[in-house]
Amino acid sequence: MEYIIEMLHITKEFPGIVANDDITLQLKKGEIHALLGENGAGKSTLMSVLFGLYQPEKGVIKKNGQEVKINNPNDANALGIGMVHQHFKLVHNFTVLQNIILGVETTKHGMLKMEAAREKVIALSSRYGLMVDPDALIEDITVGMQQRVEILKMLYRDNEILIFDEPTAVLTPQEIEELMKIMKSLTEEGKSILFITHKLNEIKAVADRCTVLRKGKYIGTISVDDTSKEEMSEMMVGRKISFAVEKSPCQAEGINFEVRNLTVSSRHSTKKAVNNVSFKVKKGEILCIAGIDGNGQSELVYALTGLMPIESGQILLGGVDITKTSVRKRNMAGMSHIPEDRHKDGLVLDYNLTENLMLKKYFTPEFHKNGFIKFDVANQYAERLIKEFDIRSGQGAKTTVRSMSGGNQQKAIVAREIDMNPDILIAVQPTRGLDVGAIEYIHQQLVEQRDCDKAVLLISLELDEVMNVSDRILVIYEGEIVGDLNPAEITVQELGLYMAGSKRSEVTV
Amino acid sequence: MNKLKNTLLNDSFNRAYSSVFSILIGLLFGLIILMISNSDQAVDGFVIILKGGFSTGAKGMGQVLYFATPLILTGLSVGFAFKTGLFNIGAAGQFIMGAFAAVYIGVKWTFLPAPWHWIVALIGAAVVGGLWALIPGLLKAYLNVHEVIATIMMNYIGMYLANYLVKLTVYDSKKALSMNVAETAVLPKGGLDQVFFNHIGTTKDMSTVNGGIWIAILIAIVIYIILNKTTFGYELKACGYNPHASKYAGINDKRNIVLSMVIAGMLAGLGGGLLYLAGANGRHIKVVDVLAAEGFNGIPVALLGLSNPIGIIFSAIFISYITQGGNYLQTLNFVPEVIDIIIACIIYFSAFALIFRNILPRFIKFRKEKKAAKAEEQMETTTAAEVEVEAQVKEEGSDKE
User: Which of A266, A501, B17, B90 has the greatest CB tally within 10 Å of its CB?
Assistant: First the structure.
């Protein structure tokens, strides 16, 4: 069998770390080849090498058996390699068509010739069942549609090798299914796909073969049909992983956290971002707020944590009204918050690990004397958390957080927030972008908090997470709670209907 | 050789090294301009600039320190604001308002006894400078008015107001300058009069330098400690690095913006006080419609010192040294305006060349990589253009990470 792309014995080093150590990846024509690995395993580096963003120290890349040199993304493009990035690269106030031709415009005497391009886009769109309206503005179409535009961009450039970088992270279950279909139809037409992911279900669903990386090393390439999920995950993390979150039955009693008729106005429109929302979280309960991204979850959390003003309503923690108190007072009163965007809110990336771990404690008497920070205490504290929560970094407590991997950054936040010993832990998409090992770990931590009789409010877009971790599910749709569900009694499909707004039940608080 | 390269890649070494390297490039650029403007005397002129304050012996060095004093303070003002995420371009206005306050107190409040008089005058300078920065601080924190715009406006308001107030209260119309401050308000010499003078026959030709330089160095150390050792500095820097995360951590970001601007203004104002409380042979406020150069020179001082308070002490002395050297260029056939251009070029080019801080280690590393690649595969040589592209692409790549 001939390979369309081969990356042979690729080694790429960064200061202090070997990101790719003798990695070999061979992509057959017309296959979907998954690239599986934890965060920091070297998947992105390997793809950046293929895309010409990095030059490897050792190893060669071959296309159709011929050795090629890829110095920059333009070279990659010329070789027919295209990539759908995790964060789309689209101009929001351009139409679909304008985005697709951007950079490869056909012109005549300096004037744009759109007609030929439009025909080609429409033809491609129908051939692969993408159903994209070429004249719609990007800002008006759904995330799933935007992704199809990215796919069309690659097809328009006649790319044969398509790299999908964690394409399902932003999609609803229905959209994921659609994407899988599209991927299959692409390979039927002779395209070859490299599919970066750490979701084993998706690999099982579409991939033919799978290459596994771990800590920069090549572990092996397997045939997906002959390998079980458990085996794959073991290859990926190097130990056995349990998928089901182990937890005892919920023993919740006593209200710990209560929200009454909360309304938050939207920054963008006159519609309310959060509309008259009420709920209670009991001690020893994980309450999950499920919903598709952008239905008011962010505003709800910002309002609860004091980062955004509210229009009306009441927030009570342990029976005390905290509606008007400052962020600092809420923190001290026992509210911890694992934020949605760890780079924007959760971390000061240019501070080192110690400085980040003490971000919510530096002002307590333990950490300062007459305004002077006790750096020895702070360092000891950081060392303890690093050990307890297994935060890995290049230079220990002195590591600048910016240089750490996403999973370890998230662990640092989790460590800091849980060590605050909160009464209510608000965790917003705490496992976003993390690998199986880290997800398992963070889920354990959440369950542990619950078992210590704390209240946990989990805001998640991941259906697996919603179903496995929570004790009770509230579904949010367009700023309103439309369902109060028991995860043991509901199917994923049903939950999907609630999330899409096509079903709602009377919610009794 | 390898050891040397590793040292070059070392971060803290690289910082100091890059500043020195930038200065060398700045000087080279100055030499080129000297060549263009007056090629016959270019080398002589360059030597004079390099000799800086030394051209006139110990007194000259005293003058270097005297003029470095306000630069340290305005440099600290800009650098401190930088560290906390603000660009204080208004040091000129804060500086001149502080200077007026110091001179006013120095001239008028003669009821104060000796040490207290100059101390109160300095405090007055700092307070007025701080007030001058309070307004942009409040505007930024509560109305989200960008501090660059607000401080530029305050520069002009400050300059004209100071001119008006000087004319109204402490103007010596014969000299067209502000009056001499009272003897009690002149900063003590701090032992420096024992060092920085020239002999003219039997009399001593004294330098204007005074204890102000000690105060400036002390303040720099205090600012260093505040920024690096205290919870206050921790908060301020956190706000500078990431205002969202600071808010999330419960830090009062609005209060910190205001405080940070006020402290920056106090530093610049104090710089004005330290320069003008210098007796009859020191500087006096000229009533001219020109923004104080000391204020703007704070920006290259802060850049060259990499906003590090200790680094700022040295970069201020360097810039003062070069400026003094420039003054002596008049002994040759250089037009004063050209001298200003040359000095400004050296200063700003030095600050500009700081990009080497990022490029240099990358370049060394790239050379290493290239060598390894060559040895192994005998690859075709990479041209300089490719080097550039590569560096760029690498940057993009690391941004994405």
Answer: B90
